[in-house]
Batch of 2 targets.
Target 1
Amino acid sequence: MNPIARNGKDFWTGLIYVSVGCAALIVSRDYGMGTAVKMGPAYFPTILGVLLMVIGIISIIRSFLKSGSPIGAVAWKGLLLIIVSTLLFGMIVRGAGVLIALPLLVIVSACASARFSWKFSLAEAAGITVFCIVVFLKGLGVPLPILGSWFGY
Amino acid sequence: MELLANLGLGLSTSLTPLNLLYCLAGVFLGTLIGVLPGLGPTATIAMLLPVTFTLPPVSALIMLAGIYYGSQYGGSTTSILVNVPGEAASVVTALDGYQMARQGRAGAALTTAAVGSFFAGTVATVILALFAPPLAAVALKFGPAEFFSLMVLGLLASIVLARGSLLHAMGMVLLGLLLGLVGTDVNSGTQRFTFGIPRLADGIGFVVVAMGMFGLAEITRNLENEGDRSTAVKKVTNLLPTREEWKRIIGPILRGTAIGSAVGILPGSGSILGSFAAYAIEKKVSKNSKEFGKGAIEGVAAPESANNAGAQTSFIPMLTLGIPSNPVMALMIGAMIIQGIQPGPSVITEQPKLFWGIIVSMWIGNLFLIILNLPMIGMWVRIVSVPYQMLFPAILVFCSIGVFSLNNTEFDVYVMAVFGVLGYIFVKLDCEPAPMLLAFILGPMMEEYMRRALLLSRGDPMVFVTRPISAGLLALGALAIIAASLPAMHKKREQAFRE
């Protein structure tokens, strides 16, 4: 995973912490520090940012000194499909409506499983869509269209 | 008797047909979703939270509490039947519960869990009713410095109790605090860390974060290895333990209840530590310690009692101090804020109906749990056997629609996806998400208390250590961190989490 550090988990965690802490410091510079008596909007985030950077640096240093367990296999396919299907749902749900967005969400995400089967997923998509229309749209009144504006509704 | 009068008020609140119905619905829904493999109480509550937004505050919190212990009990069922604990607290139940199930004693294990939970829940409810009011009275005298230090203590405790490296957990807390600050600063009106996105002006919704980190990230992690999950049991018969078994579980239930109640009050712990501790102690004191891990009924009774007692007593810091002791309580606090109730020691005096109503409904909920679950066990068995490839798309649908319905905006769905990615990255890096969620909720409150404390002390930061209560709380937190980082303790801690 990482040829330099002996503990990949520590190294990457540290790197994330340092970058976020650093970003917090840079961004809060515009907000006004104030004084201890009258804390400005930048006061608290600056403290947090500094602390986070310190912890990140310690973590990076530690990653060179102590070895740890490897990060392990990443479920790239799973992660990608889960995220893509969720984003897709958000993008089309108003335009196309739940009648199209929900089955797509179910089927695209179901592809992430090694045991994906069209037969089951189609049946599941149909069942869930009906359930959601009845419970969420009709029952709980979530303002989502069954068929959306793209179809002239 | 003031207590009786208060409990009377609670009874009259919780026994209204509507609130009884919400309590029952909460317990049922909680069990239904909690039974699904891989879904713990945090994810369950996050998913069902939007449903309660339209209810009046008392009903909403009664239902959420019902969902909480329902999902916890459902998680135990899953641990026993398929050895897939939904969350850390039921990991130990799986050790002996699943072995019992394989030996055909699933019914006895489930009944033991139910009876133990009910007894523990009853005792813990009494403890809650007895100790919450005096604690709230003390807390009413707290100034901003004390509250700030109390929150620091809570966060430090959550660091100590997180799995994995202490250093990583500390970073997660700071990250959570920072994320909590996104949005408009209440004092200056400055938009912080919004990057010009108007939708972020109100901050990031905590349900969105919770669903991303506990829902989406969990799904992805589970997809890493879709091992065969064979149900040990297709049908549960013979629910009743034998006379011999009844005798064996009395001691463990009593000890588990005591341990769970005591540990549950600690900030940062909730029910997880209690069930681990109860199991470990039971293993030491039991006459049958050789059977542990091979299907000892004591190994189910003790952690299950502790688990439920802790779940109940973890409401004490939440209701009296406004400080969550675990992610579930963090969600509860969020729900209270959404309902327009300012969590803190004044809830008990300003909202006595709410406070006592919740306490009494907890006991009623526990009663529902036992009468609902044992007869319906056949249904839960069938739900447990739903294969994961069918399950996770459904979870994803409920998360997406639920998140959308919070503010009726697809923006929240995108934010949830982002936190799903982040959550998965942190899972891979051994960074526990629970401390981050706690810190996320506490962030804005902590800043506010720090600001007020420093204002009162004219900018002198020593105020946190010169006021005795505040100093005591900070010292306690420091002690916990130092103790956890000592090499000897460090090894023990790792061992405890591996078991």
Note: Chain A has a mean pLDDT of 89.
Target 2
Amino acid sequence: MMIDATLHAERDREVERLVRAAQRGDQLAMAELMGLLAPSVARWCGPIALQHGPDAAQESLIAILRGLPGLRDPSALFGWARAIAIREAVRIAKRERGRAGDPLGELPARGDPLLGVEIRDTLARLSPEHRAVLVLRDLEGLDEQTASRVLAVAPGTVKSRLARARAGFRKAWQR
Amino acid sequence: MSDQWPTAEIDRIARLRVLAALTPGAVVVEAVLPHRFDQVWGVAADLERELPQCLTDVRTFTITREDGERLSVDARGYFGLRAHFDVVLRPGWCVMRSRFLLGGMAAEPAAEQTRFAFLGGFRFPGLRPAAPLLRRLGKPAIAHVVSRYGQRVDVRVGAE
């Protein structure tokens, strides 16, 4: 327990040092921060941007690191980065949906035995906004208030989107 | 089931592109080299021997201090130019930063081949307005560096 707390404190100090250095334009620090953020960005962007996930993740990292001078409290890095990544993933998913027309035409076959493919297929039947609310509430475990701040919508909207997203997910999953 | 949700992997070459996007005028050039990852990275990571072979402006690139994956390097050019570089070097990833220059390399295995990318750019303040011009001018030079690395891997693999 004590060791855990010490490790957390050390990690926090390291993150703070990297954020401060990156804010001064130190690219080595930016590269290290990228390494720390990349797994989380991959988790946030994947379910929302689906096959465009790598683009969304790359754009998110650029937006996060470019916006870093505006981050006053380094301990808020991950929460702040999550809001940016979710917004970028929704933006790219909507843009690509508009370009591609009907996205369902590109989906893998339903009979694929891999569960991950089934989930991707099911998520693709929802809108990017509904996928974003599922990521925040069901994958990240955020409460309604926090999710509403990340998505910049009213808590009531999060609630109704979540209900519709879960219903849509269940319906698509059972097909 | 949440561990089965899709993730958006950001490979090392994509990370190098992010670093370039954050550095005005920086250029990344990527090529697929017809050799295994360990053969390509064996050359790329051999900074002292191979970097001067591939960057025509660099005469020597000498590691003066080594602390795990962090290195200090003294670089010398052909016209008496000297620069100190802080370097982070790990498998498939290298970033080199001096006061005025930024360099980087990344590699990713692709079946029996290897995707290899090199980044080059300046770190002068106030370069942002000139970034498009610098990118256009820098691209052929960085493409030449990547091509030289390809040749060096050919030579080293041929000699094995």
Note: Residues 102-113 of chain A have pLDDT under 50 and may be disordered.
